Amino acid sequence: MDKRILLGIDTNFSITTQCAIRAVGDLFESDTPFHIFLLHAIPSTHIITEYPGHFTEQYAFIPPTGDQKKHAEEVLKKARATLGHLGFDLQRIEMMTSVGSPAEEIVRVARERHINLIVVGSRGMAGATACAAYYWAVHRDAFSSWLPVR
Any residues with CB less than 8 A from the CB of 81 and at least 6 apart, and which? Predict the structure, then answer.
């Protein structure tokens, strides 16, 4: 059975994301039979309006804008091209965009796609990476391995 790797791609295509991509290149031969899933999670935007004197709140989800979707596609294409330059088969690389908490989306996709290894860039285990690490610790039955890269 092919192995499945999930690579988290951030909005800025940061140095740590680029290091994560290179780590996959360093860890695996390009002819190793596995699928790579590139995931960019667009953080969801919510508006909560409180009404003075009332105990109710109005909660609204705002879908991602066209610019956010376009930018997500651009960073995923950059990541895919980088893997292509490292010699990986572009036919075995799938680009995915989702909307929600990046940490929760990483875990959700890992479960749905039966991922064996998650690779993400680390910023000192802060922000989404720390949250995803927490989810991994709680739900470690979801997938085999977690690799934060600095």
Answer: none
What CATH number did the domain enclosing 112 receive? 3.40.50.620
In a 3-state reduction of DSSP, which class is residue 79? helix
Number of domains in the chain: 1
Name the DSSP class of 34.
Answer: E
Percentage of the residues of the chain whose pLDDT score is greater than 90: 39
Cα 76 to Cα 95: distance, rounded to the nearest angstrom: 6
DSSP for 126-150 reads -HHHHHHHHHHHHTGGG-SEEEEE-
3-class SS of residue 62: strand
Tokens of 21: 């991509």
The predicted model scores a pTM of 0.78
pLDDT tens-digit readout, 90-103? 999 999 999 988 88
Cα-to-chain-centroid distance, residue 123: 14
Taking the CA atoms of the chain, what radius of gyration do you get in angstroms? 17
* Cα(146)–Cα(65) distance, integer angstroms: 31
- Residue 3 tokens read as 């192995």
**Structural domain range at position 70:** 3-149
